[in-house]
Amino acid sequence: MLFWLTEFSDGGDFFNLFRYITFRAGGAFFTALVFGFIFGRPLINLLKRRQRNGQPIRDDGPEGHLETKQGTPTMGGLLILSALLISSLLWVRLDNSYIWMILFVTVSFGLLGFADDFAKVSKNNHKGVPGRVRLVIGFAIAAIAGYWASMAHPDELAWRLAFPVFKDVLLNLGIFFVPFAMIVIVGAANAVNLTDGLDGLAIMPVMIAAGTLGIIAYAVGRVDFTQYLDVHYVPGTGEVLVFSAGLIGGGLGFLWYNAPPAAVFMGDTGSLALGGALGAIAVATKHEIVLAIVGGLFVVEALSVIIQVFYFKRTGKRVFLMAPIHHHFEKQGWAEPQIVIRFWIISLILALIGLATLKVR
Q1: Residue 2: inside a domain, yes or no?
Q2: Closest CA to 340 of 262, 228, 273, 281
Q3: Is residue 61 a part of any domain in this protein?
Q4: What pTM was computed for the model?
Q5: Rounded-to-integer distance, Cα 24 and Cα 2, Å
Q6: Domain that holds residue 175
Q7: 204 φ, ψ (degrees, to nearest 5)
């Protein structure tokens, strides 16, 4: 919205700053951050009044959680999403198709997660919206987003899968690009959801991934950068950096209250929305495979659940003491902050590897 202030610029005044994506990204970051600091406590107090028992804690989870996390309210993702939406609508160019596609995915998955959280707290049961229903709705949202992105991509990239390192390779998937995009977006949403099991565990890796993808989006949206890096030019994606900056600001504002011991959980409202946003950004920028590297922590968390379920059904035995894998380390005696910080470090390392793919050929 504020981009339109450039109409009052003569090219050498304050209003000219709003032309620059980096300036608006900084504005989005601080807007979301301040919003989180101001409205975080009032929202938590409201959630506590509305949720007498807080988020239902699973009986089959780690034993300590029944004592340490009982009564903590959920739906804290509302704080992140509100900060993200306000900062985005203020600072992005509203004529950018990629931004609207990503916002569509973020809000839609946020509403789906809200419905799930609401069902849990209203019934005081950890079972919310049935898993199959969530998957069907999630795939429908992702199908629209995949088609939307393909229509926005330039002709030479539309319906095609790009590869890191092998930068001259483009695989024409045709209409099958939509199912591929569906898997990427829904997979990212559910992987982040599975990771959100300890205080602060999911939000920092999400911010790291969002920052990395934002840098990639800015790079592939500039002709000069793509020529230097020899990557595919996707006009318009630079604006995604503003969205990513808002996500990081909102995430930090939430982490202030989610740091151990958490005053609020993000819930499915936040985890599904943020995971879906990461998947949508990857689809928009043609970096779906790189997302698997940058978000490698989420991939491992999801795979640990898949492996555990598959092996248990076949043999009646477990590969991990408990899945997702962060609970396995809890069972081994690792302290919660130890797990969280070490997982943050892993996320940062994977993000740097993902960024390196821009230059490696």
Answers
A1: no
A2: 262
A3: no
A4: 0.96
A5: 9
A6: 95-238+256-356
A7: -70, -50
